[in-house]
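Hello, quick one for you while I still have it in my head. A protein chain has come my way and I'm curious about its shape. I'm sending you its amino acid sequence along with the backbone structure tokens. I'd be grateful if you could look everything over and explain what you see. Here's the protein in full, and shout if anything looks odd to you:
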Amino acid sequence: MTITKIISAMTGALIAVGLIAGVQSGERVYAQDAPILYQPNPDSPIGKRNAKAPAATGEFDFVIGDWDAVITWTPPGGQSQTYSAKWHNHWIVDGFVVMQEWRGPYLTGAEIRAYNPSLKQWVGQNIYVGGQWKRTTAIFEDGMMKVIIEAGEDKRGTFLNRETYYDIEKEAFKMKSDRSYDEGKTWEQGRYSMVVTRAHD
């Protein structure tokens, strides 16, 4: 993939499922309310992880591919709603970096993830429609990938958003979210969760 194509893919993208805040309390949410503009595989190839990359880079192998996601969103004091999204994840930068493209009826975007051997963790950036960026970090422990997205904000103030990917299998996995208003000292249940299954169409 050329640099031009990578930049083009990022510009119209957002990943981080944690960016579902556009759904407001009391709103009826259905996937068919808005189309999902999905980039087909030939335009965004999977690629391969580089054999020379740090061994820990393989921690994100589980997410590579195309996925169908069902998100459950629960607004404060509101009724839970569900909707669907598409998720395409592939290797870039000679197989050292993961690019994740999220395409839903309400939000769309991408995240770039790279493993930092010195920090022994993943570092990344989310790109939002409109050009807003958010920094992320991630670690893999106890069979789960934990991603922290910085600079969340609501009426209570700024918060960290943590997504935990668990029950990871070849064809499916799950994700739950938590948030912290005190820089990670304490956590409370987040607004959304997700069930992801591998797409075969």
